[in-house]
Amino acid sequence: MTRRSGVGSQRPNDHACALSEVVEQVSGKWSIGVLLAAADGPVRYTQLEQSVTGISRRMLTLTLRNLERDGLLVRTAYPTVPPKVEYTLTGMAVELCESLTALTDWAQRHRDAIERSRVAYDAEPGTG
Amino acid sequence: MTRRSGVGSQRPNDHACALSEVVEQVSGKWSIGVLLAAADGPVRYTQLEQSVTGISRRMLTLTLRNLERDGLLVRTAYPTVPPKVEYTLTGMAVELCESLTALTDWAQRHRDAIERSRVAYDAEPGTG
DNA sequence: CTGTATCCGGCCGGATACTG
DNA sequence: CAGTATCCGGCCGGATACAG
């Protein structure tokens, strides 16, 4: 931070607003997983179902529809029998994923602290 | 991306996992707003209530407690009458906010596309 | 293979009242 | 000023069954 002079007229609330919109788009329980699973190239429905461990068909479809609707995924259906559908990241989504690496890096730097905050307070062993 | 050679053994799923954890921590309806509102320095409860437009006392408290618990905020209570409580970002949180600017930048680059995706689909012109 | 439809429980979050 | 307690509605998401 401390770049107040560079941004200009942007108040903190503006940042918060824009930021919240972005976060909300990927804040679904499965959005990140689906996005990352589709990052390596065109993937099929069943491939996603397998890579995104634990997701149900319902949530996979809903997540895909949302990402598609937000312009992050493109759905390509081939009129074959049996049907074949491929999902591909848009340029926007690729850039988003790249931006998200900043968060991944942050998470890695503070992995220990996060771990501690997610367990601790409940374990309470006698070993210290 | 395209840093596959640098990270080493990290599979996409690992990224997705770490990433999801981070996103989850700031995915509450008010987390981002509170975080950004507290970024300028120590802020008091009522200050937050005012800057974070629309938040209720209940949600403000819950959000603060969560951020505190995740090590992103520090709560300082002064034993005065009337009471005075200040909230400050931790170093972790400051770094997180800096990382989040990557997302803000992304949002700004794709602001138009985001706008379109949030309206559209309801207009339904006859051009298609 | 790629979905859709329905039911249902749990959690998130708003409104309101009360407290030290 | 800075919270806490309670009620309650709506949405998210899991399980399951059905369909082209």
What report would you give on this structure?
2 copies of one chain form a homodimer. The first copy, chain A, is mainly alpha-helical and 128 residues long. The first copy, chain A, has a single domain, classed as Arc Repressor Mutant, subunit A, CATH 1.10.10. Chain A contains 7 helices and 3 strands; from the N terminus they run H-H-H-E-H-H-E-E-H-H. In chain A, strands 1-3-2 form a 3-stranded antiparallel β-sheet. In chain A, strand 2 and strand 3 form a beta hairpin. The longest helix of chain A is centred in the C-terminal third of the chain and has 19 residues. The two termini of chain A are 37 Å apart. The N terminus and C terminus of chain A are likely disordered. The interface between A and B is large, with 50 and 52 residues. Chain A binds a DNA duplex (20 and 20 nucleotides) through helix 4 and helix 5.
Topology:
Two copies of one chain form a homodimer.
Chain A: H1 4-7, H2 12-25, H3 31-37, E1 43-44, H4 45-51, H5 57-69, E2 73-78, E3 84-89, H6 91-109, H7 111-118
Antiparallel strand pairs in A: 1-3, 2-3
The structure holds a DNA duplex (20 and 20 nucleotides).
List keywords for this structure.
mainly alpha; DNA-binding; 128 residues; Arc Repressor Mutant, subunit A; 11% strand; 3 strands; 3-stranded antiparallel beta sheet; disordered N terminus; 7 helices; globular; homodimer
